[in-house]
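Might you be able to consider the sequence and fold that I enclose below?
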Amino acid sequence: MVAASPYLVGTATFSNDEMSRNAILKGIDPAEEDAVSYLSDDIVEGDLFGLVLKEPHYSGR
């Protein structure tokens, strides 16, 4: 093995009054991800760390 990076996978359903959609979500560790993928090469502006929320964000509903 050359490199490894932890991740979590889960499912979610997003819906409104008209429709719903299912999604598979994958959470990564930005500090480790470059060792196993080229994801950061595809980011045009910012970096992987910019995707991490500093504080939890919840909808007002």
About this structure: The helical segments are 30-33. Residues 7-51 form one domain. The first helix runs from residue 30 to 33.
